[in-house]
């Protein structure tokens, strides 16, 4: 296959599937849905991975770049590409959607609509990770919203309308911040030149004053960068979500059906971290340099706050949702670890953040799946009304226990690597944040084990519908086992992920460092001139 | 010219006050007519007199005043006022038929 | 095979057993099948064999360091798994695998009541019937052994941390083995969380050292620390961080509270995990890190150890639970080890680690034997007089008691050696180091006197334990008790032999010699003066005498109170101390649990509630408030259309009304306000425009 | 008007072909009237005539595409301007008319009576055509008189249309309110035009800037307004009239009442065609103030731009806030059009500011953005009102709550409605997003140079979020809320016909598929903007 077309195929195959599902009879909707998702997964792994490693990166470290004219008047191009930052997330997306689709197998209400929206969502997510053009990115970023709204709103729990609109409002507010920032940068990047550009790669060059060709010498002033950075950060903090923008998450999770929760936690939150790495930092390095410490601090606050709030929850799903807030805090922590003097630690922070995203993608998917399995059977999520599941559903509980350990950051499981690496990386940059994050592991253990104790341990299940507590079906076991196996594999040998991210992260950090350095020199120069003038 | 402008301004004020204070729809419409007439006065005046206080450096003579345009405009205003009045009366009649009154204050049923 | 290869094989061999145990429900679905146990025992024994081979093959004091694979690496920062093999590693390997072998074999017998589909758990009011979990236990056990060996083999701090957490998790699983019992689940959770408090510190220390050094390999850390390349801040944070981890893992003050509760696990677990190996991990790590620890940290270690020794010993005096006594005793003994490490008695501390592992696991296994015999009764007040029913166990226990008390018969020599068991030698080494240290630093005299007193207390509570259990008239729970089967006795006897004779020769013997082959050199510190070797040797004699006197006094008191000649059953003999408030206080472990609950647990939970409440009320409230506000404004806005124009154009309205009065008509109403608003706005805007543009 | 009479014939020859679509509209009106007269209604229903006329006019307008770009010209002795903008507005308005006529045919409005001779058809279609004509004329007015005529042409029939539902109290009241307010606005505007004419001595827009440039703005005292003051007052009064047509706050009061009272088909048309024309007129009028000489024009236009930005911000905010509380779909959409006008005005503001400050890029971007937005808006609003009309035919209600559970009963209509609403929010990949993006891009392009514009764009962004609240209330009713008890299962009204579906799809397709075509459309709007400027 033409490697360039591969990315387009990955992005739009689910959309095609969505159209097909919408037109097909309801009975076969799930077959088409699952088939499409599986095909997409195969594309992201069996086809994309070899192609990725064969391809040679371009000047900006991107591979398999597809570039086509789209909207001439705005200089919008249809540009897709993949690098080490997006590749792990793309693969994760394929996987989580596959597992989630398998979890959705028994959705009986309006299956056609469900599967169409489901597939559309996948297009949005994959496209967001692969887009290199800001306009395309934004469009696909927003394409995620509507399906999510309906998936929560139509197939959700009793309070779904509230949760859905809350999710939508928060995210839309964020995405408009993003839009404003993007348009500002778009305008600023074209000032003095004929054409503004939406190309992330070019814009990032321009932002650090390293534009080439017709953009040579164009820079984006510090004020614009600062404003744009905070706007973009705001968007992604909401998406991530970081305290205090996180309150949409527990509601959305609690009301969303299980597969949607899996996707939301497993993939959608990662868009936040990805956006910071891909947009907020490279497009506004000067603003970012000033704000990195706050990112770090917000990460620490999220970790502690999320964990504390999780500790107070009695709803299983809400607890897991807050644990997501806490765990995504480590992503922020890593992302905020700008150690200018020690670029290696800086790189470690970014790599750790990406790894944490992947790791959390697996553990949170698993945890939400675990909740869903229970909810399917006994139709409640009250932690205090479980118990004894290790006895009643041993396989389920064992896997659930394993997943909980992965989530609380036990070495050998995937949660640990991300947490440890981000804390290590954050230490030189911001010891207090790192220390706070380290203390977060106590709280994490606290609420996780408290949950484990009340749900899995104990003598007997104490809630209603005891007779429904059947063993895991083969399908459920397979989903859970795959997640667990991945958690172990990545925990024991995380190198593959780091190896993939390293060149991209290295390049990113180097360019950011250059930008900050160049700015400092410029300022020094100005000071000297000012001094001379005096 | 100034005199005409003052007259038209007075007419305008009367029209607006009439629109704002008359309870009867027909009265309100008469206010509108007054306003339009104020405009007509201006047009006719403008046709007759050049633009005041403009340091005229424009080449062509006919550009100084509005000329015939003003008078035609006044005519059009009259015509349109008539057309509008016709439509307005029809609507007021319909309203009267439904509400039994031409009191504009009765038109307060549409609320969000 | 090279030494590292042997040890790596030894590390991962038990993993086979773990897999076998965890998957036995599929390949051995029958419940009355010990296959998993046999596989596990074989694996761990094989592990021991490999470790022993490696120890014999190892030639020389030079440590062997190596890297397995990198978790994360860049030019300036490396996180990896790798090994660091020296005499300490090898000793620990042999120790862990040997004790584990014994425990594993013992457990084959101890857990035989799990070999059924209808295991009855008597700890519930209504008897709980559940399928047995024989296989699972061995799975966990092997998993633990792997994790422990992984910890011990670790060539860098990160690797150690990995093992550190893994043993914690295995400990969680093992404590929670009887997860149906609420107490077991709670104890497991408590153990893990308390450990995590220390681990958080560990993580911070790790971060500080990693940031300072770029990697955390022991070799390079020691080199850098020795060469003064690491900043003092990094060393201090690193040192205290690591210490925090060790305090948690080794149940040192102030994090000792989890260990007594951890006795909720099966007794073999207590023997292996919570006395011999895992809890010794903290001591091991302090020992391992000694070359990179600054004086402040060492002194803190000494004082914490000193405090812990006493804090552990006192409650042990009043415990009525067989395993509870042993647990507090473990805390106390671990304090000894820490103390020794702190007063630069590197060899002494680790020496005691080894001997303690043997005699304490011996005692736990004996206790297990008693517990099985007495149908899971472990309250010493209900025991008594078991000497006759279980002579072998009693004898073995006695060996342990003598060993831990550090009793010896001075003057009588056997093979040119004072007639004594292992504990005597190691405790003697510790005391002499402490004495030498206090002589060199008189300000720290307490570091000698407290352990000395504690030595007496140790003898006292141990004799009490033995006396209440085995001597006297039979207690209420001893009906039908009989000696345990050979599968349980064999490991007990092996361990008894080791507890008695492993330390033969004292600090001149082979064990000490091997252990200290790669001993770090005693550094010089600004804070205190390290005693010279000569001073230690000199102190030896005094310390030996004083230690013996203290132990002898304690033992004598114990014999007097609880000796075999006291015929009353245990409960009667223990009764005198039952109800005093101070006794209750001490028995509950100085009330630490209550204090922590009030000062740490409650506030944290409260903070959690506050956070959740903040979410609900403040953050969500703000959002909702905005929404409500918007809705209000909207309603307001809507009424603008119909009514508020009245207000907005009140001025115009008044004007109009004025004119209206003039014309004899005063009204107010909707539509006209529209028009008035229109006119007002038009005029107003015009005026505004003129002002702005022309003014 | 001392014109050279010999120039009349060539002028006529030039103007007539360009004016062909308008002539067709006129012819249609005449034909509609004639059907009634000669009783042809029996075999030639008014709807068909209107449809034929509108289709023909639209087709003709489309055919004029190329010419206007190459050779913009004045027509009718300078009364109208025939350029790219004219053609664009003409196409859009006539298309809107055509689509509305189609919709009325589908939804059966006006209700066919048993006696064809008594048919309401002509009564309905004549004003409809007249509004279309007025809208088209607004897009090309190049003369103050023409401006007034066009606005009245679009307004007066609209009063009739709003009041068309005979015997309906609501409609009567709506029409009366619209009428009174509209008449007032027309009066004010006319007065403004007369002031301007008096001060500058010309009625021709192109000459206006030249004359205004002669008036120095400096030194004007506010208590002595004099000529400059009169000129400014005239401009402001005219703008007030246009703001009325655009239903901008505070001249929007008529909108909710009229849209609630009128038929959804009429509301849809009234919210689209006159608005497109009025925007074109606003741009033309605004630009005419900017002469090639002097600073007066610059200052005027900068001031105008800032005023537009402020007005845009106010309109958006007020429109959105007011829409929150609405329960009636028509009223809700009416407030939505108020807010949407605000957003579109932002582009115009950018355009004016750009011209005033000599920033050509900004001006082009702003105008192109508005045009793009208007195009999207045409389909979005027509689609939304069409869906409302079809729902109304089934449920006989127009409140939000009546939609509960219809998402699954009438999936096509509901889907089309949802698409329109999503587009109105401005979410990708719909056309609404494209319009919003283009406008925002222009408004945000210069943070330092025009902070007010930038701030207005930020307010617009915030408003977009807020608008989600009410745009999604119908969607929520459609899909998330269960059908009310007792009615579930039972079909409501006659099933949705295939042609209705086809119509809705026809409207939804451009909304959804705009992204692939964006390149062409964007280039087109740019070209028009450049041509106008």
Any overview of this molecule?
By secondary structure, chain A is an all-alpha fold. Chain A has helices spanning 3-23, 26-54, 86-103, 111-130, 134-143, 145-155, 160-189, 200-207, 222-239, 248-255, 258-283, 285-311, 316-335, 343-378, 389-392, 394-407, 414-429, 431-455, 474-492, 495-533; strands at 63-71, 76-82. Chain A has one domain (3-533). Helix content of chain A is 75%, strand content 3%. A two-stranded antiparallel sheet of chain A has the order 1-2. The mean pLDDT of chain A is 90. With 112 residues, chain B is mainly α. Helix content of chain C is 70%, strand content 5%. Chain C has helices at 3-22, 24-27, 35-57, 87-110, 134-153, 157-175, 182-213, 218-226, 232-249, 258-261, 267-276, 280-289, 295-318, 322-342, 346-373, 386-389, 391-405, 422-440, 446-470, 486-501, 510-515, 533-562, 570-575, 581-587, 592-648, 650-662, 670-694; strands at residues 64-74, 77-85, 119-121, 128-130, 408-413, 418-420. In chain C, the strands form three sheets. In chain C, strands 1-2 form a two-stranded antiparallel ribbon. The chains are: A mainly alpha (534), B mainly alpha (112), C mainly alpha (695), D mainly alpha (533). Chains in contact: A-C, A-D, B-C, B-D, C-D.
Which characteristics define this entry?
heterotetramer, A: mainly alpha, two-stranded antiparallel sheet, B: 112 residues, mainly alpha, Helix Hairpins, NADH-quinone oxidoreductase subunit M (chain A), membrane (chain A)
Return the CATH architecture of chain B.
Orthogonal Bundle
Strand order of the largest sheet of chain A: 1-2
Euclidean distance between termini CA atoms of chain B: 47 Å
**What structural class do helix, strand and pairing data of chain A support?**
mainly alpha
Helical content class of chain A: over 70%
Structural class of chain B, please?
A: mainly alpha
What is the straight-line distance between the termini of chain A? 66 Å
């Amino acid at each position: 296959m033409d490697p360039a077309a591969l990315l387009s195929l990955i992005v739009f195959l689910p959309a095609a599937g969505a159209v097909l599902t919408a037109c097909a009879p309801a009975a076969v909707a799930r077959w088409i849905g699952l088939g499409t998702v599986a095909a997409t997964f195969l594309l992201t792994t069996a086809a994309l991975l070899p192609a990725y490693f064969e391809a040679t990166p371009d000047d900006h470290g991107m591979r398999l770049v597809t570039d086509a004219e789209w909207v001439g008047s705005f200089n919008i191009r249809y540009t897709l590409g993949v690098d080490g930052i997006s590749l792990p997330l793309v693969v994760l997306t394929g996987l989580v959607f596959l597992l989630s689709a398998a979890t959705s197998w028994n959705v009986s209400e309006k299956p056609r609509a469900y599967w169409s929206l489901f597939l559309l969502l996948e297009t949005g997510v994959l496209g967001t990770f692969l887009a290199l053009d800001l306009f395309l990115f934004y469009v696909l970023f927003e394409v995620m919203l509507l399906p999510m709204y309906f998936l929560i709103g139509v197939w959700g729990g009793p309070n779904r309308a509230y949760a859905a609109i809350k999710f939508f409002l928060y995210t839309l507010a964020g995405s408009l911040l993003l839009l404003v920032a993007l348009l500002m940068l778009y305008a600023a990047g074209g000032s003095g030149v004929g054409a503004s550009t939406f190309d992330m790669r070019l814009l990032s060059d321009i932002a650090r004053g390293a534009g080439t060709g017709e953009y040579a010498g164009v820079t984006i002033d510090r004020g614009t960068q600062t404003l744009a950075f905070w706007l973009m950060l705001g968007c992604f903090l909401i998406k991530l979500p970081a305290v205090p923008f996180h309150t949409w998450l527990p509601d959305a999770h609690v009301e969303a059906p299980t597969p949607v929760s899996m996707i939301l936690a497993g993939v959608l939150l990662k868009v936040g971290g990805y956006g910071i790495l891909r947009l907020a930092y490279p497009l506004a390095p000067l603003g970012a340099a000033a704000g990195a410490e706050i990112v770090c601090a917000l990460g620490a606050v999220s970790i502690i706050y999320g964990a504390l709030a999780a500790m107070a929850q009695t709803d299983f799903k809400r607890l897991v949702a807050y644990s997501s807030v806490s765990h995504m805090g480590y992503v922020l922590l890593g992302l905020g670890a700008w150690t200018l003097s020690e670029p290696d630690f800086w790189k470690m922070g970014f790599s750790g953040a990406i790894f944490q995203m992947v790791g959390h993608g697996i553990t949170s998917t698993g945890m939400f799946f675990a909740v869903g399995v229970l909810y399917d059977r006994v139709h409640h999520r009250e932690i205090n009304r479980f118990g004894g599941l290790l006895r009643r559903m041993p396989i389920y509980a064992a896997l659930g226990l394993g997943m909980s350990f992965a989530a609380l950051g036990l070495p050998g499981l995937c949660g640990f690597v991300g947490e440890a690496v981000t804390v290590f990386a954050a230490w030189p940059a911001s010891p207090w944040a790192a220390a706070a994050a380290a203390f977060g592991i106590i709280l994490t253990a606290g609420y996780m084990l408290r949950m484990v104790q009340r749900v899995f341990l104990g003598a007997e299940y104490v809630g209603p519908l005891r007779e429904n507590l059947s063993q895991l079906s083969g399908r459920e076991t397979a989903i859970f086992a795959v997640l667990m196996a991945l958690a172990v594999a990545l925990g024991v040998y995380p190198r593959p992920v780091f190896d993939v991210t390293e060149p991209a992260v290295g390049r990113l950090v180097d360019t950011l460092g250059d930008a900050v350095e160049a700015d400092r020199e410029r300022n020094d120069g100005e000071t000297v001139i000012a001094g001379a003038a005096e | 010219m100034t005199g005409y402008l003052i007259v038209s301004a007075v007419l305008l004020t009367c029209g607006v006050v009439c629109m704002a204070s008359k309870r009867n729809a027909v009265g309100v419409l008469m206010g509108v007519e007054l306003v339009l007439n104020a405009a007509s006065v201006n047009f006719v005046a403008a046709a007759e007199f050049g633009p005041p206080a403009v340091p005229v450096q424009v080449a062509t003579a006919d550009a100084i005043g509005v000329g015939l345009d003003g008078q035609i405009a006044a005519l059009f205003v009259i015509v349109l006022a008539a057309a509008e009045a016709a439509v307005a009366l029809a609507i007021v009649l319909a309203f009267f038929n439904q509400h039994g009154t031409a009191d504009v204050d009765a038109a307060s049923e549409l609320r969000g | 095979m090279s030494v590292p290869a042997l040890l790596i094989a030894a590390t991962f061999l038990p993993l086979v057993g773990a897999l076998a145990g965890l998957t036995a429900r599929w390949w051995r679905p029958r419940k009355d099948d010990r296959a998993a146990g046999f596989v596990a025992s074989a694996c761990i024994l094989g592990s021991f064999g490999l470790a022993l081979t490696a120890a014999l093959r190892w030639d020389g004091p030079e440590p062997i360091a190596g890297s397995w694979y990198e978790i994360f690496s860049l030019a300036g920062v490396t996180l990896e798994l790798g090994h660091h093999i020296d005499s300490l590693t090898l000793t620990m390997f042999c120790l862990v695998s040997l004790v584990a072998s014994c425990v594993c074999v013992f457990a084959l017998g101890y857990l035989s009541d799990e070999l059924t589909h209808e295991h009855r758990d008597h700890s519930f009011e209504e008897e709980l019937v559940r399928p047995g979990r024989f296989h699972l236990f061995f799975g966990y056990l092997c998993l633990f052994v792997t994790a422990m060996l992984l910890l011990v083999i670790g060539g860098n701090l990160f690797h150690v941390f990995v093992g550190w957490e893994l043993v914690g998790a295995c400990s969680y699983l093992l404590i929670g083995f009887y997860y149906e019992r609420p107490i077991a689940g709670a104890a497991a959770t408590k153990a893990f969380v308390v450990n995590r408090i220390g681990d958080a510190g560990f993580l911070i220390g790790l971060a500080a050292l990693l940031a300072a050094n770029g990697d955390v390999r022991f070799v390079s850390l020691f080199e850098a620390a020795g060469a003064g390349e690491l900043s003092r801040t990094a060393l201090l944070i690193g040192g205290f961080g690591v210490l925090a981890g060790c305090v948690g893992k080794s149940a040192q003050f102030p994090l000792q509270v989890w260990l007594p509760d951890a006795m909720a696990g099966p007794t073999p677990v207590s023997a292996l995990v919570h006395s011999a190996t895992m809890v010794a991990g903290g001591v091991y790590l302090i020992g391992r890190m000694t070359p990179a620890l600054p004086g402040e940290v060492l002194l803190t270690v000494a004082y914490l150890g000193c405090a812990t020794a006493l804090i552990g010993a006192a409650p042990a005096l009043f415990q009525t639970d067989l395993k509870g006594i042993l647990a507090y005793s473990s805390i106390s003994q671990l304090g000894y080890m820490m103390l020794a490490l702190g007063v630069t008695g590197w060899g002494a501390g680790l020496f005691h680690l080894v001997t303690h592992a043997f005699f304490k696991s011996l005692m736990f296994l004996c206790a297990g034997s008693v517990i099985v015999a007495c149908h899971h009764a472990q309250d010493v007040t209900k025991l008594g007089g078991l000497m006759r029913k279980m002579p072998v166990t009693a004898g073995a226990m006695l060996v342990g008691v003598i060993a831990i008390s550090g009793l010896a018969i001075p003057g009588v020599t056997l093979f040119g050696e004072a007639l004594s068991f292992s504990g005597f030698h190691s405790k003697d080494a510790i005391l002499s180091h402490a004495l030498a240290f206090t002589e060199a630093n008189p300000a720290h005299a307490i570091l000698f006197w407290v352990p000395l007193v504690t030595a007496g207390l140790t003898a006292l509570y141990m004799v009490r334990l033995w006396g209440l259990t085995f001597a006297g008239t039979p207690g209420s729970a001893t009906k039908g008790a009989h000696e345990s089967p050979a599968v349980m006795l064999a490991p007990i006897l092996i361990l008894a032999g080791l507890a008695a004779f492993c330390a033969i020769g004292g600090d001149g013997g082979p064990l000490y010699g091997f252990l200290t082959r790669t001993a770090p050199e005693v550094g010089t510190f600004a804070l205190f003066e390290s005693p010279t070797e000569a001073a230690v040797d000199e102190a030896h004699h005094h310390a030996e005498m004083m230690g013996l006197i203290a132990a002898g006094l304690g033992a004598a008191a114990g014999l007097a109170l609880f000796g075999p000649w006291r015929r009353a059953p245990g409960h009667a003999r223990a009764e005198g101390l039952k109800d005093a408030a101070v006794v209750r206080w001490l028995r509950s472990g100085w009330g630490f649990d209550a204090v922590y609950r009030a000062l740490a647990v409650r506030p944290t939970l409260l903070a959690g509630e506050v956070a959740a409440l903040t979410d609900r009320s403040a953050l969500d409230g703000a959002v909702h408030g905005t929404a409500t506000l918007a809705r209000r404004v909207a309603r307001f806005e809507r009424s603008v259309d119909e009514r508020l124009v009245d207000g907005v154009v009140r001025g115009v309205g008044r004007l109009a009304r004025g004119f209206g009065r003039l014309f004899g008509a005063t009204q107010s109403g909707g539509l006209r306000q529209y028009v008035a608003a229109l006119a007002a706005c038009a005029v107003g805007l015009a005026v505004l425009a003129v002002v702005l543009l022309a003014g | 008007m001392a014109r050279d009479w010999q120039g009349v014939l060539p002028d006529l020859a030039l103007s007539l072909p360009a004016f062909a679509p308008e002539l067709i509209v006129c012819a249609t009106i005449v034909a509609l009237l004639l059907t009634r007269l000669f009783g042809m209604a029996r075999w030639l229903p008014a709807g068909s005539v209107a449809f034929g006329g509108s289709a023909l006019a639209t087709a003709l307008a489309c055919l004029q595409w190329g010419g206007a770009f190459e050779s913009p010209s004045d027509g009718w002795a300078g009364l109208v301007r025939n350029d790219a903008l004219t053609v664009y507005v003409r196409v859009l308005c006539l298309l809107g008319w055509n689509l509305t006529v189609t919709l009325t045919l589908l939804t059966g409005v006006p209700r066919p009576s048993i006696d064809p001779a008594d048919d309401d058809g002509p009564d309905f279609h004549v004003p409809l055509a007249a509004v279309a004509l007025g809208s088209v004329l607004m897009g090309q007015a190049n003369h103050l008189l023409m401006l007034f005529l066009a606005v009245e042409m679009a307004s007066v029939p609209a009063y009739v249309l709003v009041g068309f539902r005979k015997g309906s109290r609501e409609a009567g009241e709506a029409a009366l309110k619209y009428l009174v307010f509209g008449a007032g606005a027309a009066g004010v505007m006319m007065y403004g035009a007369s002031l301007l004419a008096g001060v500058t001595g010309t009625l021709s827009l192109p000459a206006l800037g030249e004359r205004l440039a002669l008036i120095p703005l400096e030194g004007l005292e506010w208590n002595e307004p004099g000529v400059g003051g009169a000129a400014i007052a005239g401009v402001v009064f005219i703008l007030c009239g246009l703001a009325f047509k655009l239903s901008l706050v505070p001249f929007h009061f008529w909108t909710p009442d009229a849209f609630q009272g009128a038929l959804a088909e009429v509301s849809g048309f009234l919210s689209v065609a006159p608005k497109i024309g009025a925007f074109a007129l606003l741009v033309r009028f605004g630009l005419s103030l900017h002469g090639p000489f002097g600073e007066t024009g610059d200052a005027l236009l900068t001031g105008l731009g800032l005023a537009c930005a402020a007005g845009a911000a106010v309109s958006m905010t007020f429109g959105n806030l007011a829409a929150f509380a609405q329960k009636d779909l028509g009223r809700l959409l009416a407030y939505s059009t108020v807010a949407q006008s605000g957003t579109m005005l932002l582009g115009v503001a950018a355009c004016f500011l750009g011209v005033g400050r000599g920033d050509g890029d900004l001006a082009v971007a702003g105008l192109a953005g508005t045009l793009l937005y208007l195009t999207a808006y045409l389909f979005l609003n027509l689609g939304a009102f069409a869906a409302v009309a079809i729902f109304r035919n089934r449920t006989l209600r127009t409140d939000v709550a009546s939609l509960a559970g219809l998402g699954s009963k009438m999936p096509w209509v509901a889907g089309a409605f949802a698409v329109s609403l999503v587009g109105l929010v401005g979410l990708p990949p719909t056309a609404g997003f494209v319009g919003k993006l283009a406008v925002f891009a222009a408004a945000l392009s210069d943070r330092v140079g025009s902070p007010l514009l930038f701030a207005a764009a930020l307010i617009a962004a915030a408003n977009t979020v807020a608008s989600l609240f009410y745009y999604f209330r119908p969607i929520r009713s459609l899909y998330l809320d269960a059908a009310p008890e007792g009615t579930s299962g039972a079909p409501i009204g006659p099933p949705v016909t295939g042609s209705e579906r086809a119509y809705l799809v026809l409207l939804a397709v451009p909304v959804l598929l705009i992204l692939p075509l964006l390149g062409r459309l964007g280039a087109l709007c740019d070209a028009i903007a450049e041509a106008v400027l």
